[in-house]
Amino acid sequence: xxxxxxxxxxxxxxxxxxxxxxxxxxxxxxxxxxxxxxxxxxxxxxxxxxxxxxxxxxxxxxxxxxxxxxxxxxxxxxxxxxxxxxxxxxxxxxxxxxxxxxxxxxxxxxxxxxxxxxxxxxxxxxxxxxxxxxxxxxxxxxxxxxxxxxxxxxxxxxxxxxxxxxxxxxxxxxxxxxxxxxxxxxxx
Length: 188
Known about the structure:
By secondary structure, the protein is mostly helical. It has helices spanning 2-25, 32-39, 53-73, 82-89, 95-111, 118-138, 146-163, 170-182. The longest helix is centred in the N-terminal third of the chain and has 24 residues, at 2-25.
């Protein structure tokens, strides 16, 4: 068991290092050498868990999706504020979520021309849409197209925060709160 824990910790270390490389230098810099240097590891030690560049990119975006799912799963499902808390998890309101959003955007952009990444990007998009649908249902908002509208609003807010250096994104909550109030929903 400790051996697999070591492998899981190593994989997490490498994925987080790859995220930092992407955020700082972009997708072109996502090389085994750069990731290994960022993680403080020998390049040869990455080859077992990440035998190819494609595997690094795939695991990086899957890790973004897994972390989002973990955070949402930690919200009490019967909580009256589940929807509001879930919407907040979709916004880059702290360093961790900002880094995840930067990675998601970089990999999403790469997916436009990379057929290996396109299904992963579609899976991430579908997950966000599903969360918006569930949030709308939890709020009693059943208007057709509303989940997609809220997803577009959240995506746009998140993109703006990531593109503006030093923006902590706190204002996005007020924008989202105002839109929900227009729909007749009080946010707590």
